[in-house]
glucose-6-phosphate 1-epimerase
Amino acid sequence: MASVSIPLSLPHLNLRRVNRFSGMASASANRATGPSAGVKITEGVGNLPRVVLTSPHGSEAEIYLYGGCLTSWKLPGGKDLLFVRPDAVFDKKKPISGGLPHCFPQFGPGAIQQHGFARNMDWSVVNSENVEGDPVVTFELKDEPYSRAMWDFGFQALYKVMLNSKSVSTELKITNTDSKPFSFTTALHTYFSAAVTGASVKGLKGCKTLNKDPDPKNPLEGQEERDVVTFPGFIDCIYLDAPAELHLDNGLGDVITIKNSNWTDTVLWNPHLQIEACYKDFVCVENAKIGRVHLEPSESWVATQQLSLS
Ligand SMILES: O=P(O)(O)OC[C@H]1O[C@H](O)[C@H](O)[C@@H](O)[C@@H]1O
């Protein structure tokens, strides 16, 4: 096994959960029984705990426990295909603005806070593996008084992140651990690095649309007629029953294939002049579940996403 670094005294880090790394018996565990090869826990920006994944081919990903947020996916050579906004803060006062924030148990505005609470709670690491040389880490979020105060249900979210040489994949599994049913909406609010004037998405032609511009509370119904959707200005649009595969040309020389299972909808967002400082540098192509998912006690819902370079 390749050597791994296991800092055991990170502030904020939930050691009880970290100790559940496969084979890791205690906080003073021997290095050989710690996280799997290619998985490292470090302090990130603002001293927040962050898991760094490294593939043997040299690609790298990092995930903050705060928000379970995948903030970086770097190709061998260091090019980051994800984007973190320059106004992002890493002090837990608000969700990390960038990467792949979770929207759960609500996408957008509604009964509880915008995009729910999963993006501003601490997730924990419950497992790490090395699958055919590639690192895989599973994070968990469960209900606690903070979430119960706005959404009074018992739940477990398991989020597996897998890094390969040319892709990063995620699997989200939501389980109802309560004795009563619940329903939710959700999304992975992915920020891609882009040159907005050159960026485009293929695969959405024919989808029904809910355009949140101009009024997010009363989206306009329509249908996408274009083969290639571009970002000429402000865009905030939901595509219902989107295909399982889309292609994003980021305008920076990369075409990213976005595959999914069970994320039935897609959202395109670029804030244009609402975020003047950086709107030219990213586009959001979000895998979403806009129709409510209903779970009876003990039932689960699973959705996967794979971002890969063509
Ligand atoms: O600013 P946030 O709460 O992170 O939300 C950013 C954006 O997320 C989604 O893309 C929604 O469709 C937008 O309406 C919203 O403005």
Remarks:
- The mean pLDDT is 90.
